[in-house]
């Protein structure tokens, strides 16, 4: 996912991961200020939801059935004029082995700038988001 992002909005990306019980995931987003006078924060949220799947091998996405609600963790970070990244805490993929996980990274833009005493929403530059998986 690349771009400047929208002011006072969110950008997100989804992916599917085949995960074993005990694996953990977290999200990371790269960002920086749009201009030097901007201030505020961004919030990176990592969410995942488990699915059962039909078929005899892992990774088949046909016949997906949701078996859980969304689990989420977030972190607030403060952009500077250089590229930085914000990484959420970890969430475990609990339950049975070989589960299909729908993973989502959301970057919420809370940046602002002031002109003539009026506070206005401002863009934030973002480079990419990614899911990090570890066991």
- Measured on Cα atoms, how large is the radius of gyration? 17 Å
pLDDT average, as an integer?
81
Q: Note the beta-strand portion.
A: over 45%
The largest sheet, given as strand count, sense and whether it forms a barrel, is:
5 strands, antiparallel
| First-residue to last-residue Cα separation | 26 Å
Order of helices and strands: EEEEEEEEEEE
Quaternary organisation: single chain
- Helix segment tally: 0
Characteristics:
single chain; mainly beta; 4-stranded antiparallel β-sheet; 11 strands; 0% helix
Describe what this molecule looks like in 3D.
- Helices cover 0% and strands 56% of the residues.
- Strands 1, 3, 4, 5 and 8 form a five-stranded antiparallel sheet that branches. Strands 2, 6, 7 and 11 form a four-stranded antiparallel sheet that branches. It has a two-stranded antiparallel sheet with strand order 9-10.
- Strand 9 (112-115) and strand 10 (118-121) form a beta hairpin.
- It has strands at residues 10-19, 24-33, 42-52, 65-66, 71-77, 84-87, 91-92, 99-109, 112-115, 118-121, 124-134.
- By secondary structure, it is mainly beta.
- The chain is elongated and about 55 Å long.
- The model has no long low-confidence stretch (mean pLDDT 81).
- The chain contains no helices and eleven strands.
